[in-house]
Specification:
Order of helices and strands: HEEEEEEHEHEEHH
Shape: extended
Largest sheet: 9 strands, mixed
Number of helices: 5
Oligomer: single chain
Mean pLDDT: 80
Radius of gyration: 23 Å
Low-confidence stretches: 78-98
Number of strands: 9
């Protein structure tokens, strides 16, 4: 029985290794003016598994594929829920419970850790992006901020960003083409490195310690 379990664990480890080391390719094209329309494709292991997404004229199609066989799972007109999206949760704040705010943890070390991880992530994604169009917000200062970010991103050789700001008011007319490929294990390592960075660990580790102390206090009460 022990020998059987050993071979089962080896098989599971080999399967996990294949999943994490097989490349994933992404091809996405879309535009947004009055309505959103796009077509994207996700391929794993050279197309062994795939997922096609298509949105246009208020309809969304999801088409998974395996070994070249494809089947559309959903092809229905999207319906807007009455009342719109509810952004607030129904949970009430408990008495004495402090409200979590990510801004309270914001510091230079955290920003540097996130910035370095984003740079590693962009390199790992082998991203090739083309984006063009016109954009604008009601607040001209926000339009200027986005212009600065886009200018910084456009310094990469694999990026082609041609967005014209409209400072007179709100305007959206965008077209984009994104291609990328990555190794899942590489992305996982980048994510774990970010999570265990000292500046990021300072956010979640104290919460775990406090939770353990609370459980111990309740257990021995």
């Amino acid at each position: 029985m022990t020998e059987v379990m050993f071979y089962v664990l080896i098989a599971l480890a080999a399967l996990l290794g294949v999943i994490l080391l097989a490349p994933v390719h992404i091809d996405f094209r879309g535009e947004y003016a009055q309505t959103l329309s796009f077509h994207g494709r996700l391929r794993w292991a050279g197309g062994l598994l795939s997922l096609d997404l298509r949105h246009g004229e208020g309809r969304l199609e999801l088409t998974p594929g395996c070994l070249g066989l494809k089947k559309t799972l959903k092809n229905a007109e999207e319906k807007k829920q009455p009342g719109g999206l509810k952004l607030r949760s129904g949970k009430k704040k408990r008495k004495g419970q402090s409200e979590f705010s990510p801004l309270s943890f914001l510091n230079l070390r955290l920003l540097q850790a996130v910035y370095e991880s984003i740079r590693r992530l962009l390199r790992a994604l082998h991203l090739n992006m083309k984006l063009s169009g016109v954009y604008g917000f009601d607040d001209p200062s926000l339009t200027g901020i986005v212009l600065g970010v886009m200018t910084a991103l456009n310094t990469g050789m694999s990026y082609s960003i041609d967005l014209k700001p409209e400072f007179a008011g709100e305007a959206v007319d965008l077209r984009g083409d994104i291609k990328a490929w990555f190794i899942p294990l590489h992305i996982l390592i980048i994510g774990l490195r970010l999570i265990f960075k000292k500046a990021v660990r300072a956010i979640w580790w104290p919460k775990i310690k406090n939770s353990r102390k609370h459980k111990e206090a309740v257990q021995y009460a």
